[in-house]
Design a protein that fits this description.
Blueprint (H helix, E strand, L loop, with lengths): L1 H8 L4 H11 L3 E4 L5 E6 L5 E5 L14 E3 L4 H16 L4 H13 L3 H10 L6 H18 L2 H11 L5 H13 L12
Antiparallel strand pairs: 1-2, 1-4, 2-3
Helix pairs in contact: 1-3, 2-3, 3-4, 3-5, 4-6, 6-7, 6-8
Protein name: HEAT repeat domain-containing protein
Length: 186
């Protein structure tokens, strides 16, 4: 399955993200008889309304026994999220790229960080670039050596992103009591 996700993600199509999203959400199935990949949504009659995943053509409703869910696990879902993030990070629409970076701000995965590093030099928009750099600084703050952490704190001190404040508060709360600053900073 990981190879299949990589293959799907490499297809330059508007359907690619949609298929990965359905797979991530557990809504991707295949018809047992034909192995046709479909989106399936349960209707009120306890049947499943099918739509061809590649053509978006509606199909007849079938019983649950006629289809089988494409299964995922946590590792595969992580790979799917990373593939979707990469698709969004390379989208021509700035708003989509900004939203993708903001999703990574709260919980950047290794694959997401790697994608940011690879795409940083290609990004042309200053707002998107700034958010990409914030993610890298947050990662440095969490995982860097002492000097790197101090440099990240200095660089991020003027930024109002909630993810930065949350990271710093979490790090401060993890300090031993006698090392914590005595001010009322949250």
């Amino acid at each position: 399955m990981p190879e299949l996700v990589s293959s799907i993600a490499a297809i330059p199509s508007d359907k690619t993200r949609e298929i990965l999203e359905f797979l991530l959400n557990g809504d991707l199935y295949y018809v047992k008889a034909s192995k046709q990949v479909v989106f399936a949504v349960k209707n009120q009659e306890e049947a499943y309304q099918l739509t061809d995943a590649l053509t978006n053509v509606a199909m007849d409703a079938v019983s649950k026994s006629a289809i089988k869910k494409v299964r995922t696990n946590n590792s595969l879902r992580s790979k799917i999220r990373s593939a979707i993030a990469r698709i969004d990070l390379t989208n021509s629409n700035k708003a989509v790229r900004i939203q993708a970076v903001k999703q990574l701000l709260d919980n950047p995965s290794e694959a997401g960080l790697q994608a940011i590093k690879e795409l940083l030099s290609q990004e042309q928009d200053d707002d998107v670039l700034e958010l990409m750099n914030v993610i890298l600084m947050i990662n440095q703050l969490k995982n860097g050596e002492h000097a790197q952490k101090m440099a990240a704190i200095k660089r991020l001190s003027d930024n109002l992103e909630p993810a930065i404040k949350n990271t710093m508060v979490t790090m401060l709360n993890a300090l031993p009591k006698k090392v914590k600053p005595q001010n009322n900073w949250p």
